[in-house]
Amino acid sequence: MEWETVIGLEVHAQLNTVSKIFSGAATAYGAEPNRQACAVDLGLPGVLPVLNGAVVAKAVMLGLAIDARIAPRSVFARKNYFYPDLPKGYQISQYELPIVAQGHLDIELEDGTRKRIGITRAHLEEDAGKSLHEGLGAMTGIDLNRAGTPLVEIVSEPDLRSAKEAVAYMKKLHALVRYLGVCDGNMQEGSFRCDANVSVRPVGQEAFGTRAEIKNLNSFRFVERAINFEVERQIDLLEAGGQVAQETRLYDPDRDETRSMRSKEEANDYRYFPDPDLLPVVIHPEFIERLRTELPELPDAKRARFIDAYGLSDYDAGMLTGSRELADFFEAVAAGCDAPKLAANWVMGEFSAALNRSEVELRDSPVSAADLAQLLCRIEDQTLSGKLAKDVFEAMWAGEGDADAVIAARGLKQITDTGAIDAIIDAVISANPAQVEQYRSGKDKVFGFFVGQVMKQTQGKANPAQVNERLRARLLGD
Amino acid sequence: MKLETLTGWRRRLRAREISSRELTELYLGRIARLDAQLNSFITVTDELALAAADAADERLGRGEETPLLGLPVAQKDIFCTEGVRTSCGSRMLDPFVAPYDATVVARMKAAGAVMLGKTNMDEFAMGSSNETSFYGPVCNPWDPDRVPGGSSGGSAAAVAARLVPAATGTDTGGSIRQPAAFCGITGLKPTYGRVSRYGMIAFASSLDQGGPMAATAEDCALMLNAMAGFDPRDSTSVERRAEDFSADLERDLKGLRIGLPREFFGEGLDPEMRAAIETALAVLKDRGAILVDINLPNSGLSVPAYYVVAPAECSSNLARYDGVRFGHRCADPLDLQDLYTRSRAEGFGAEVKRRIMIGTYVLSAGYYDAYYLKAQKVRRLIADDFRRAFTEVDVIAGPTTPELPFRLGEKSADPVKMYLSDIYTIAVNLAGLPGLSMPAGTIGNLPVGLQLIGNYFDEARLLNVAHQFQQDTDWHARMPAAFV
């Protein structure tokens, strides 16, 4: 039987506010356990939550970027369950009335076509703390630094049909939140993670199959592998005459498999009800409009502009707008050397390769956009050949200084002394009488041969424009 | 020495006729001598009180004037007090010392008040008799065999016995007004949002409201001036211009329209109580008020609606008491489940458990709409009744309770009977309105409370009416004989 995969993703993105969603404690990552947990985060008797307005603004920006409806009135609800790292015994979340609803995101499929993925809702909630097991013997430690960190949970429609589509969607969303500056997107630190709802059904069947929810996937690779494993598991099960259980599963990257965590029967009844400690969030149209004007250029618009303004191919524009940092970097290089196509080739080529090879992030690159632009200018003004430029780039990457400094230090500086160039030209002419004869009899093509010879003699350091001019004069002048 | 009201002591402190230290010692002495009969305090903070009194004397000496400077008060043990145990009347919080002051406590400290200690209360404010306290029941100073009411029973009994001139209370369904009525003192539940709930341990967040309990309306106004005000740490606190609740006390009552809800005078009201209330209303009429019959047709639904909403919120609010971070933890837990179940089984009393179970049930999948959602709708109907009534009248009046203080143990076995003792007070919380109870007579030796209900933020009006009533009556000045 042919099977169709159906996937919906619930992405949790940590909003990068300075303080927590309901308290003034800092959200910074990596502090000593419980040093960033105030009385409110600890859920001490008598404390009350107060909503951080910055969280609302970021959620609204996200809503605008996915073309969603911003709820004029949304409500925080309590999700009740007991867990040691959940200090109040409930998580403050949004349930019936989320802040963002009915948006969408377009992803690009492998064949180059686009597909629109519906986004059911995005709601605000607080993160829980962490249970610590290492180094504590039989005890469990509780670290509440993360408790109260603002999250936006973005729930897609079950519109995704393969692990690849799921990854494309997640990457697109990842780029988007970073473009918007609402989330740092750091997946290792858990700032951007997802749960995947996966089911299969016979091709042509309308009704969905029973789904399993895979929790807490924190890398694109894990999303792909976990879904692929789960799809195979479900198909094998069904084809063997079995049934898929509605349950929560965990992905184990070491063994590359998903394992059952709890069944539907064991699932909590969360007893949601509106949190009486918080007022409904009322958002006025003026607030939305103000944020709309503050929205940065979004990936799709930027891509179109890159094609239009820089004459880039759709592919190049897509690559360069994959992240806001890369796009900004490219634009700075292009502006600095006034050669957008050259800039695009270098940014995607040598530069990206160097980043990968050295395993450094763009923001930590030893070569700045201005440095790279300077190098490209030296190609443009023909100081450097493409090959020499690569050597100079390697030297720049290794910290030997900017392009001009490397050129000077390595004696790569172009020869501009006309006397010296003339002497070499004369030597080349006298050494190749046959070619001179051919040129003079009208074979223009031979001119290139002379240029090559001169450049060879100067190890590429002669200014090509100068060589052209002097060579032509010498060849015709005699 | 004559035991003055809070206002009286304030005058004498400022006239330098007595020092705050002398005053504090006087009341600490009364507590030490007399509270064994009542059990109205859970914690007495002698040393802190004397230190605060000395500091107040210094400030008084410099001519400083803050509203409660040097005046002894008590805090209901539901308000968090930095460095002093805050038990909420529960074994669960017996070992809990808050690392911070509730906003009310901080404001009263800033106003110069001298805290004598923390008063007894029903466990987590769940009760109408103060019998659910882990620290034992409180006795009614007018008759030690009877309850003082609850949940602010300790504050009410302590004020009535003049162990302290004024105290704070909290009122979720009548917990200030009912004990004020049972103990013959004046107590005010402000409009929801008027007094910050930050640091006031939550029972039912959408209903809880702190307020003053004292001998007179004038004293309550003085207390409320210190307690009330917007608090950015409580999202449900209301941002309004500061108000002087003492300013309107002397206004006359000519033409004041007082609505008498027929539903509050019907079946279930003790006939002697009714007579006492009618006599009291006649006093207001003599002062020029106009008595008007009104209807609050949905008031009969208030007790059932309340016993859905309040337990629902409590079941969630009390989830944090899990033995993990603070409060009672069972000995040698076997695993996480054991830690939870035994800590909570040991830490909570029967009434708290009952309400957690009711609340968990009404919020459960499949029951939410039928119970919680419906109760919220009823709540709106009840508020609408009041809204309509306040288009016709300025103030609503009636009995605070359907009957006199009952005997200790009389209703402990029958929760529904116990719940019905708040039948006249609960609707006020559901609507979020201000309500006041003041002593309006006695039957035998036992006090009768008259309840006044005002429109939103009309506390000044309620205090004005009560103060005018107290100009013509002396119920508020009477003291139980054993404590004179």
Keyphrases for this structure?
heterodimer; A: 478 residues; alpha+beta; Arc Repressor Mutant, subunit A; 3 domains; nine-stranded mixed β-sheet; three-stranded antiparallel β-sheet; elongated; B: 484 residues; alpha/beta; Amidase signature (AS) enzymes; eight-stranded mixed β-sheet; 11 strands; 13% strand; globular
Description of the molecule:
The complex is a heterodimer of chains A (478) and B (484). Chain A contains 16 helices and 16 strands. With 478 residues, chain A is α+β, with helices and mostly antiparallel strands. Chain A has 3 domains: 213 residues, no CATH class; 113 residues, no CATH class; 60 residues, Orthogonal Bundle (Arc Repressor Mutant, subunit A). In chain A, the strands form 4 sheets. Chain A has a 9-stranded mixed sheet with strand order 2-6-7-10-1-11-12-13-14. In chain A, helix 3 packs antiparallel against helix 4, helix 8 crosses helix 9 and helix 10 packs antiparallel against helix 11. Chain A is elongated, with a radius of gyration of 30 Å. Chain B has 484 residues and is α/β, with parallel strands linked by helices. Chain B has a domain of 253 residues: Amidase signature (AS) domain (Amidase signature (AS) enzymes), CATH 3.90.1300.10. In chain B, 37% of the residues lie in helices and 13% in strands. Chain B has 15 helices and 11 strands. In chain B, the strands form 2 sheets. In chain B, strands 4-6-5-10-11-9-7-8 form an 8-stranded mixed sheet. Chain B has a 3-stranded mixed sheet with strand order 1-3-2. In chain B, a hairpin with a 2-residue loop joins strand 10 and strand 11. Chain B is globular. Chain B starts with 5 loop residues before the first helix and ends in a 12-residue tail after the last helix. Chains A and B meet through loops of A and helix 9 of B.
Tell me what portion of residues of chain A adopts beta-strand conformation: 15-25%
Instruction: Give the overall shape of chain B.
Output: globular
Mean pLDDT of chain A: 92
| Named CATH architecture of one domain in chain B | Alpha-Beta Complex
Largest interface, counted with CB-CB under 8 A?
Answer: A-B, 28 and 45 residues
**What is the terminal separation of chain A in angstroms?**
83 Å
Shape of chain A: elongated
Q: Can you say what the CATH homologous superfamily of one domain in chain B is?
A: Amidase signature (AS) domain
Portion of residues in beta strands of chain B equals 5-15%
Q: What's the rounded overall pLDDT mean of chain B? A: 97
CA(first)-CA(last) distance of chain B? 11 Å
Gyration radius of chain A, rounded: 30 Å
Sheet of most strands of chain B: 8 strands, mixed
Give the strand line-up of the largest sheet of chain A.
2-6-7-10-1-11-12-13-14
